[in-house]
Amino acid sequence: MHRKGINVNNVQPEDILCDYCEQSAWSLGEPCIEGHQGSIVCGTCLTLAFTDIVINGHGDLVDLKCRMCLEVREQTSWRSKNDPEATICLRCIKQSATALEKSKHWEWSRPTGG
Ligand SMILES: [Zn+2]
Ligand SMILES: [Zn+2]
Predict the structure, then answer these.
(1) Domain assignments of the chain as residue spans, ordered by start
(2) Helix (H, G, I), strand (E, B) or coil at 52
(3) CB-based contacts of 72: which residues, under 8 Å, 6+ apart?
(4) Which ligand is nearest to the CA of 33?
(5) Which of the residues 1, 31, 86, 95 has an alpha carbon 20 to 30 A from that of 70?
(6) What is the distance in A from the centroid of ligand 2 to the CA of 56?
(7) What is the pLDDT of residue 40?
(8) pLDDT tens-digit readout, 36-85
């Protein structure tokens, strides 16, 4: 997400926030993946979501739009601890994990549990 009240013609790295933890992942040099309409998930949140949903099989079916794909999916979703309205669906967790692993910019790999 973009920080509120920014100059859209002069967006700075610190204006780009993770939708799930509201940290400025970009300016902190953290890996992040962009979804639709400027939504962002950072590597830290993706690790949490992947561990919770994919590895441990937790998560709820939610009737909220996934922040990344902007669709309501009948899939388990991970909720941000920060903002219970901010969810990411299983599909986006997997897609984002694959995209981050492939990215040459970041040293990120999916958690393996244990
Ligand atoms: Zn985050
Ligand atoms: Zn999604």
Answers:
(1) 13-102
(2) helix
(3) 62, 63, 64, 65, 66
(4) 1
(5) 31
(6) 19
(7) 94
(8) 888 999 999 999 999 999 999 998 898 899 999 999 988 899 999 999 89
Which tokens sit at 105?
Answer: 């910019």
Spatial separation of the C-alpha atoms in residues 28 and 106, rounded to whole Å? 13
Residue carrying the six token digits 């709820």: 60
* Distance from residue 110's CA to the centre of ligand 2 (Å): 18
Give the integer Cα–Cα distance in Å for 6 and 28. 18
Q: DSSP character for 36? A: G
Q: How close is the Cα of 32 to the center of ligand 1, in Å? A: 8
Residues 9-26 pLDDT 10s? 998 888 989 999 999 988
CB-CB contact of 66 with 86 (8 Å): no
Question: Measured in angstroms, how far is the CA atom of residue 19 from the centroid of ligand 1?
Answer: 6
